[in-house]
Amino acid sequence: MGFGLSFEYSSARTPERLEALLRTTQRLAKHAPEYFSVTYGAGGSTKDGTFETVAALREHGFPAAPHLSIGTDDDAEVLSLVDRYVALGVDRIVALRGDIPSGFGSTRHIRYAEELVKLLRKHLGSKITIEVGCYPEMHPDARTPDADVDFFRRKVEAGADSAITQYFYNADAYFDFVARARVGIPIVPGIMPITGYANLVRFSDKCGAEIPRWIKTRLVALQDDEAGVKAFGTEVVTRLCQQLIDGGAPGLHFYTLNLAAATNAVLANLRLPPRAR
Q1: Residue 222 lies inside a defined structural domain of this protein
Q2: How many domains, the chain?
Q3: Which tens digit of pLDDT belongs to each residue from 134-149?
Q4: Which of 9, 43, 79, 111 could cross-link to 70 by cystine, CB 3.0-4.6 Å?
Q5: Is residue 99 part of a domain?
Q6: Among this protein's residues, is 16 annotated catalytic?
Q7: pLDDT of residue 47
Q8: What gap in Å lies between CA 159 and CA 126, rounded to an integer?
Q9: What are the residues facing 132 on neighbouring strands?
Q10: Can you say whether the dihedral through the CA atoms of 119, 65, 199, 213 is positive or negative?
């Protein structure tokens, strides 16, 4: 199995944003990615936008994989949506617990990704590839690192084919997680390009990703220099990606923020291994 690339989008909520996203996709398609994934808001809040974005990507000939969580839907509603995706020709789904909708204060409302993987596998058998998420630096809700790995293993045992990690900036965290997980599926590192300071801190605080102090201090010093931030970010993320590739990572999954420039800048610098076509 060759090295694979994939790119993640948030759903386009207006016709103008969808047109812009399709232009971004044209710029990224030269890298021959395995797929473009489209996120699913807390509790399915972008359900319609995710479907429409995936449908547009498929219509233009691009391989697309929707993110999906159970959220507040019952199983029949989830499977109805899955069948609509299959009718589009979708053959890959990213199955996640998803963010908990605001107002859902009790854990009794939470349904985990493990349940969704089982539901998809029972409904579709081997007709679909199921991706799941994992956290090299530990999920914010996990009690301990070992408990977090146990949750991940249960998703694999439920039928996941591959995993995408939350982003990180310490390659050792990824390699340590892979060694501890000891699962028989590819674990693809998630990569967040660095294009600014404030948004990166906000995203990282929310998802529990650590920004090393040396990166933070450099970004603070450069925050009034847009070109300097982008150059520094490209250098840092290129170095990280090359470490991952050289260490045997099976692919790279870029969190693009619906933009192409930063991802393209990193990929232009890398010595990529042979890729699956």
Answers
A1: no
A2: 1
A3: 999 999 889 999 999 9
A4: 111
A5: yes
A6: no
A7: 79
A8: 9
A9: 95, 163
A10: positive
Residue 39 lies in a domain: yes
d(Cα 171, Cα 60) in Å, to the nearest integer? 35
Q: How far apart are CA 4 and CA 272, in angstroms?
A: 10
User: Of 187, 176, 172, 184, whose CA–CA distance to 243 is shortest?
Assistant: 172
> Rounded to 5 degrees, what are φ and ψ at 131?
-95, 145
Reading the block at residue 167, the tokens are 């982003």
DSSP states of 87-117: HHT--EEEE---PPPTT--SGGG---HHHHH
Query: CB of 116 within 8 A of CB of 62?
Result: no
Sequential DSSP letters for 18-30: HHHHHHHHHHHGG
Q: Is the pTM of this model over 0.90?
A: yes
| 168 contacts: CB under 8 Å, gap ≥ 6 | 136, 137, 174, 189, 190, 209, 210
Amino acid identity of 8?
Answer: E
pLDDT given at position 45: 53
> CA-to-CA distance for 7 and 24, rounded, in angstroms?
11
Domain that holds residue 81: 4-191
Cβ pair 44, 111 in contact under 8 A: no
The two tokens of residue 18 are 């969808």
Query: Please, are residues 166 and 177 in contact by the beta-carbon 8 Å criterion?
Result: no
Q: Please provide residue 78's backbone torsions phi and psi, each rounded to the nearest 5 degrees.
A: -60, -50
Q: Which of 8, 114, 115, 131 is catalytic?
A: 8
> HSE of 54 in the Cβ direction (CA atoms, 13 Å)?
29
The string of pLDDT tens digits covering residues 122-135 is 999 999 999 999 99
Residue 42's pLDDT is 53
pLDDT mean by block of 10 residues, the chain; 277 residues? 92 94 98 96 69 97 95 88 96 82 44 92 95 95 94 96 98 97 97 94 92 96 94 98 98 97 98 77
In a domain, 232, yes or no: no
185: domain CATH number is 3.20.20.220
